[in-house]
Design goal:
- Strands 3-2-1-6-5-4 form a 6-stranded antiparallel beta sheet, sandwiched between helices.
- By secondary structure, the protein is of the alpha+beta class.
- It is elongated and about 75 Å long.
């Protein structure tokens, strides 16, 4: 959210931006760009209260051109809003699977229309953020599956299930834009790879595959063709071929199957 607000600010559309996530049914304001006071920080906004609460409840953008005199909202938060000098404000909910997960605000300190461009920018930002939330939800779901796999007894989860989760984690890692999250996901997938068999440490130390080479091998290990692997990883088939050739060379393998078998023996793949 912080990154999205800064990106909007860099476009120079509006001077004041802020927002926060919805926890339970309450909106908590945590991120601010361009504010002059701390009066909005930490506000907890119940459902249907103020602009944000109404946006959460109605799951639609709320726009006012004169906040202090608006008859369309409650005025529970007049003091912090007006002390910040805000008049024309838009509150846009971030929707995921039909639920409001966050709200983004844009505001100016004049009682004048924000303009269509500002509204378009905010709606586009909320959609991008909604996609990011959806991806992170899926990541959380898969991490829970990973934790269950780690705790499962040897007969509690099949080898194929573990391998499928590993490949899906690698695929999801390619879908997120957060570099730190990508690294975390790939690290967790490597932990999952060690569940089935420990690596041959002496040989493994001499073999270093890149994250993308492991991504490709993980899909090949599921029986994916180059085209199918490309679709799952959002790259071209030629790119898949290139990474696969490179991985085979490092693993001293003459075939896709041999590369997968060797990677599994080394603990690179589950």
């Amino acid at each position: 959210m912080r990154s999205e607000l800064r990106s909007i600010a860099s476009q120079g559309v509006v001077p004041v931006l802020f927002g926060g996530e919805v926890e339970g049914e309450t909106l908590h304001l945590t991120e601010f760009v361009g504010t002059r006071t701390n009066n909005l920080k930490g506000l907890a906004i119940p459902p249907r209260s103020g602009m944000g609460g109404r946006a959460v409840a109605q799951r639609a953008p709320i726009l006012v051109h004169d906040y202090g005199n608006s008859q369309s909202i409650t005025h529970h938060f007049d003091r912090p809003v007006l002390s910040e000098g805000l008049h024309s404000i838009i509150a846009v909910p971030v929707m995921v699977a039909g639920k409001s997960r966050a709200v983004l605000y844009a505001a100016i300190r004049e009682s004048a229309p924000l303009g269509d461009r500002a509204g378009d920018v905010m709606v586009s930002a909320s959609r991008r953020l909604g996609m990011e939330f959806a991806i992170r939800d899926e990541v959380d779901r898969r991490l829970q599956f990973l934790q269950a796999a780690s705790a499962a007894s040897s007969d509690g989860m099949s080898t194929e299930e573990i391998r499928d989760v590993h490949a899906e984690l690698r695929s999801v890692a390619n879908s997120v834009t957060d570099t730190d999250l990508q690294i975390k996901l790939r690290g967790l997938s490597q932990r999952l790879a060690s569940i089935l068999r420990p690596a041959d440490r002496d040989i493994a130390a001499a073999v270093t595959l890149t994250p993308r080479e492991i991504d490709v091998l993980s899909q090949v290990a599921l029986g994916c063709t180059n085209v199918e692997a490309a679709q799952r990883l959002s790259v071209s088939a030629e790119t898949v071929k290139s990474y696969l050739r490179s991985a085979m060379g490092k693993l001293d393998a003459s075939s896709r199957h041999e590369a997968v078998v060797t990677a599994r023996r080394l603990g690179i793949l589950p």
